[in-house]
Design brief:
By secondary structure, the chain is an alpha/beta fold. The chain has two domains: 37 residues, no CATH class; 178 residues, Nucleotidyltransferase, domain 5 (2-Layer Sandwich), CATH 3.30.420. It has eight helices and eleven strands. The chain starts with a strand and ends in a 10-residue tail after the last helix.
Length: 251
């Protein structure tokens, strides 16, 4: 109990304060409640709007940076726009099926060439997926954004955002988070700034505000890692498509 004024108090009660609820009852209730409402209903914790989209403490998905093994496949997801263009890079530990978000980029009001330089600086061989909206008209009349980026040397495909939609991607990402199969380097401060405010409105709909890096993580989980390659594999495919010979294998 917290004293607000001399005659007003705030009492926060959780399921543990309800002796009539058995553990079996609590488990059944937990499974029946949407993820964004669980902390509010089970623990009495006030939340943003109708709840955080990913109701987890940051420490559960944060990890300290480490040197990524060369044989781990990598990929990135790109969300484009004039006000903000964002990108997230992931590496996949196939043995544990864990995706590690190891780098981020977010920049507003810049030309595509600026973004391309930043993306290539992480490894110009890394393949990526791009926000499906990039199939529409670009920032300048008559230019399709995806074509503009691929013409400048990026290996891009359209991110999966159509089969299961926004909620399906959010749910799949959440499942990876709670199972420990999605970790984010604690140096990705821009993502965590968005993560803390990534919430739903009173009707339960996700607020589409300041969520570019969160969208990138969703695109990466949904389809980006399906394109992931390690450097030798990526260069080998490039050389074969160009009719050349791989320097490592000799053919």
């Amino acid at each position: 109990m917290m004293e607000i004024t001399s005659n007003k108090y705030l009492v926060v009660a959780s399921w543990d304060d309800a002796p009539h609820l058995s553990q079996e009852d609590k488990d059944a209730l937990w499974e029946s409640i949407p993820p964004f409402q669980r902390d509010a209903r089970a623990k009495g914790i006030p939340s943003l709007g109708s709840g955080a989209v990913w109701p987890l403490v940051e420490e559960r998905i944060k990890c300290e940076p480490f040197e990524i093994p060369e044989y781990w496949p990598k990929a990135y997801a790109l969300d484009v726009g004039w006000k903000n263009t964002a990108c997230i890079w992931g590496a996949w530990d196939r043995e544990s099926d864990c995706v590690y978000i190891w780098s981020e980029y977010k920049q507003g009001e810049a030309e595509p060439a600026t973004h391309v330089d930043a993306i290539k600086s992480r490894g110009d061989w890394i393949p990526g997926v791009i926000d499906p909206a990039a199939r529409g008209r670009g920032q300048r009349d008559g230019v399709i954004i995806m074509d503009e980026y691929t013409d400048m040397g990026l290996d891009l495909d359209i991110a999966d955002n159509t089969v299961t939609g926004l909620e399906g991607g959010v749910h799949r990402t959440f499942r990876r988070m709670v199972s420990g199969r999605l970790k984010i380097f604690d140096t990705c401060r821009g993502f965590f700034d968005e993560f803390r405010l990534y919430s739903r409105d009173e009707k339960g709909k996700i607020k589409k505000v300041n969520d570019h890096l969160c969208d990138c993580v969703r695109y990466l989980v949904m389809s980006g890692m399906d394109r992931a390659k390690h450097e030798v594999e990526a260069l080998d495919l490039y050389e074969r498509s160009a009719g050349g010979q791989n320097a490592t294998t000799g053919y």
